[in-house]
Design a protein that fits this description.
With about 210 residues, the chain is of the alpha/beta class. The protein has helices spanning about 10-20, 35-45, 65-75, 90-95, 110-120, 130-135, 150-160, 165-175, 175-190, 195-205, and strands spanning about 5-10, 30-35, 50-55, 80-85, 100-105, 125. It has a six-stranded parallel β-sheet, sandwiched between helices. Helix 7 crosses helix 9, helix 7 (about 150-160) crosses helix 10 and helix 8 (about 165-175) packs across helix 9 (about 175-190). It is elongated and about 55 Å long.
Length: about 210
């Protein structure tokens, strides 16, 4: 089945460019477009897309507020930020708002398509500059240490840093997927993070698994 995509940007040239190369891909179906966050909410309600490519700075309502409302109302819809801004004041609020992906507008078309497919699979994809911003926000002087985790939680977290899915982790550690999910919940609580990406980047940043 094709992935239904809604395009949101306040520049018509950008919208036309996105539509031009995305609609040629056999796995994608461009269902509509919007030019600000408020219109995006209306289009989402009307068209029920699978993925929304969301600009950041727009009139009426910015992309962060629109993302927050979309994710809250339609948690199954994946929002990917596509913007020119990679500073921390843009990146962190977008991720906290619920964006599953964050790419810059200079991204290669093939990478953007991969980002859309990854989002549909529930995986985050971040532009390298964005990843660096998130890592820079994580310091080593906040009192967190790998010793706060049990041995099994350490094993699960290490597998997460390798990019493995719950199913792959379960197979590797010879435990059930339900048990993996339980360990991950405990890991997030102890590390005070919200998702796998944050947990993995923190562990990598602080050399928990040398």
């Amino acid at each position: 089945m094709k992935i239904n995509v809604l395009l949101v940007d306040d520049h018509l040239v950008v919208l036309k460019g996105l539509r031009f190369f995305l609609q040629t891909h056999p796995d994608l179906n461009i269902v509509g477009q919007a030019q600000d966050g408020k219109e995006a909410l209306e289009k989402v309600e009307e068209l029920k897309p699978d993925v929304v490519l969301m600009d950041l700075i727009m009139p009426e309502m910015n992309g962060i507020e629109a993302t927050k409302q979309i994710v809250a109302t339609y948690p199954h819809i994946k929002v990917i930020m596509l913007t020119s801004f990679s500073d921390k004041d843009s990146v962190l609020p977008a991720i906290k708002a619920g964006a599953i992906g964050y790419q810059l507008k200079d991204v290669e078309p093939s990478v953007l398509i991969d980002t859309i497919k990854a989002a549909m699979a529930g995986n985050k994809t971040l532009h390298p500059q964005v990843t660096n911003q998130l890592i820079d926000q994580m310091t080593t002087d906040d009192g967190k240490d790998v010793s706060m985790l049990t041995e099994r939680e350490k094993n699960v977290l290490e597998q997460i840093t390798l990019g493995r899915s719950n199913k792959e982790i379960a197979a590797e550690l010879h435990i059930t997927e339900k048990t993996v999910k339980t360990h991950i919940t405990h890991i997030f609580a102890k590390m005070e993070v919200q998702d796998r990406t944050q947990a993995a980047m923190y562990a990598i940043k602080n050399d928990w698994f040398k």
